[in-house]
Design brief:
mainly alpha; 17 helices
Length: about 400
């Protein structure tokens, strides 16, 4: 690998991180949710549905993006996905008051689809440029998406207060489109044969480049996919209602907003640090730790109030960020980098099912004696099962 290639790939990574920042759009919905409830006369569960649908379709978009990478170049796909995403945001801003169900289509389906196509393309491209630093670069890229909430939440809150739902969503949509269009042109796939023989010394990786059919024939796929599905309910059940839930647990509106920003910081921290640490201690040990950490945090959340509630929410966000950084990395470790985009899209199918189902779980548990707190019990149980399932994961062939 020449010096020029080393320099060029870091330039591509820097621009890729800027674009990836925009794909953290899901993490701003908790700011819009209370305003959507007021504007469209929704209950909490109905206001959470666009978030859940968006994440589910996002996973499907990842799969579509993985397939399209074989036929279309990365730059074009990122432009297409980003444009679809921003058009969905603009449409969300102008959903009529008497048609709130359209939020599920504009924000849930259109934004999720465009975001997923572009996200998968960008992530797979960066991993191909850095097979020697896969954990580090995956952490940087997914961390960039996590930064979205930290930077955009206070901006969105300002425009929500001063201009309302429509103005704030329009500002977010316009800002993201400018960033995506101005930065995506730099992002290219590496030349054919680039570092294809590289093998890390301290991380077990496969020497085989699995196709989807071959991957689906392995036990490792089902362990990885189902454990991913079980890793994320703790965050999915809480994130879209962070503001309202924080106020219910004794926080002032100002402190609840601070909590939303803290969650973004911890989500970002987990995304950045977990893959980097796993390069040194291994993927499986760190994933097992994250499952235990998440189980303890979400279990304690059932009775927590005030500042303890805030701390536990931050811990859950840290674990979630770690999971989001780890699973793209472990997927390419076990099934190869050549088809990493489409393979990771298939790994994310469990994630999609979980994200769509979580809002309905919240709605159902409200009818139970423990109310919303019972959803935390469900999330803790999912984390425990995920931990047990992951114990059976063996080294790739």
């Amino acid at each position: 690998m020449t010096t020029d290639k080393i320099k060029n790939r870091y330039i591509i990574l820097a621009f890729g991180a800027c674009v990836q920042f925009c794909y953290g759009i899901a993490y701003v919905w908790s700011m819009f949710q209370p305003y959507a409830i007021t504007k469209y006369s929704l209950d909490t569960s109905a206001a959470n549905q666009p978030f859940g649908i968006m994440l589910g379709v996002f996973a499907i978009g990842n799969l579509i993006g993985g397939f399209l990478q074989k036929k279309l170049n990365a730059t074009f796909l990122i432009y297409v996905g980003s444009t679809i995403m921003c058009l969905g945001l603009f449409a969300t801003a102008y959903v009529p008051v008497d048609k709130p169900w359209l939020l599920n289509i504009t924000y849930g389906v259109i934004v999720g689809l465009g975001c997923g196509i572009a996200y998968n393309t960008l992530l797979a491209t960066m991993q191909k440029w850095f097979p020697d630093k896969r954990g580090m670069v995956t952490g940087i890229i997914v961390c960039s998406a996590g930064l979205f909430g930290l930077i955009m939440n206070p901006i969105a809150q300002h425009f929500l207060v001063t201009g309302g739902f429509t103005i704030a969503m329009t500002v977010v949509a316009g800002s993201l489109y400018v960033i995506c269009i101005s930065c995506a042109w730099v992002i290219k796939a590496p030349p054919k044969g680039y570092m294809e023989d590289y093998r890390p010394v301290n991380i077990p990786t496969t020497s085989k480049q699995y196709t989807i059919r071959e991957m689906l024939g392995t036990k490792q796929y089902y362990i990885i996919a189902f454990s991913f599905m079980l890793a994320v309910p703790a965050y999915f059940l809480i994130n879209p209602m962070l503001m309202s839930l924080g106020v219910d647990r004794g926080l002032s509106t100002g402190v609840a907003l601070l909590g939303v920003m803290l969650v973004s910081v911890m989500n970002t921290t987990g995304r950045l640090t977990a893959p980097w640490i796993s390069d040194r201690i291994g993927r499986k040990p760190l994933l097992l730790f994250l499952f235990l950490f998440s189980t303890i945090s979400v279990s304690a959340l059932t009775i927590a109030t005030g500042n303890l509630f805030l701390i536990l929410i931050a811990c859950i966000a840290l674990a979630y960020g770690g999971f989001m950084g780890m699973y793209p990395t472990i997927s390419s470790d076990y099934f190869g980098i050549k088809n990493a985009g489409v393979n990771y899209g298939v790994v994310m199918l469990g994630y999609a099912i979980c994200s769509v189902g979580c809002p309905y779980i919240v709605r159902a548990v409200k009818l139970m004696p423990m109310g919303t707190a019972f959803s935390f019990v469900i999330a803790a149980a999912a984390s425990i099962v995920g931990f047990i399932l992951l114990l059976g994961l063996r080294k790739p062939e």
